[in-house]
């Protein structure tokens, strides 16, 4: 699967890193939205939530509310804003229902056209041509495996080209990890980049996670790169590996035959995927909601059990509670240092010092600087 992924190491420290001033400020936030988040294919959810006619998901892509909806088996993406008086249309993160504005009841069809307007004849007198001019703005949508992506600006490479060799990774993960066991959205008082960087190195583990992640993995971090994206692999500790072996056997959980350690992927700009011992998948996005705030959206998946009698049982519930609690604790520890780092970034001018143990951060910085056209 990863034969085409080039193995490399950056020469630390890098000549260029993201200046601390670029982690805050409305102008920087707006420029990132225009140059990165509107031009990249952005992960917005899973086809799991879009299986049926009129199933929908919503997402905020750097300030733009997006809906993806199943119209008779076809996925289409639109601006989730009514063209009448600009209320959001779908107010929930996912569900089932036609695109109906909750404010005045305008109904939009598969082409984004308002075909149901209460009192149209009496109050608006909009003919078909006028209705078409009020169609929702449409966005590109593409799927790889079960991962759904949207792009706001139409120009640029297709999704498969942007993903490169990691497209096959998403296919593999989609086939294996089908059972969602936890999901949440956590508000962080930190720029999305400062938040994301907590996931791109294990150098911080001893100090930040002394009672949690420190004992989960060994102090080995092998990195590789695919375009703007990156992968870090760390060996699980012997105790963690034994625990997962026992859980997989007792619960009848499938395991990846390709990802046997702790494998962590970054799909630029903000999609982070971690796989533990081939048995658990964590999917996280670090979504900017302002220059000084982001939301961490996390999902945890196991594979479909070969022992269906274990689902809903006490042992299975205990495993899920253990895994979910462990994940939430680690995220809380990362949140603490990300928010502390963001406060520090607003008070300095000099660039950060990156060591060889932080090479994935250096690679992320280079990709960001290139996208932002910073020389």
TrEMBL record:
One of the Pfam families matching this protein, by short name: Rieske
Keywords associated with the record: 2Fe-2S, Dioxygenase, Iron, Iron-sulfur, Metal-binding, Oxidoreductase
UniProt keyword Metal-binding, yes or no: yes
Segments forming domain Rieske: 41-150
Chain positions covered by the region annotation Disordered: 1-22
Entry annotated with the keyword Iron-sulfur: yes
Cofactor: Fe cation
InterPro entries documented for this protein: Rieske_2Fe-2S, Rieske_2Fe-2S_sf, Ring_hydroxy_dOase_asu_C_dom, Rng_hydr_dOase-A
MF terms in GO: 2 iron, 2 sulfur cluster binding; dioxygenase activity; iron ion binding
Stated name of the protein: Aromatic ring-hydroxylating dioxygenase subunit alpha
Organism: Azospirillum brasilense
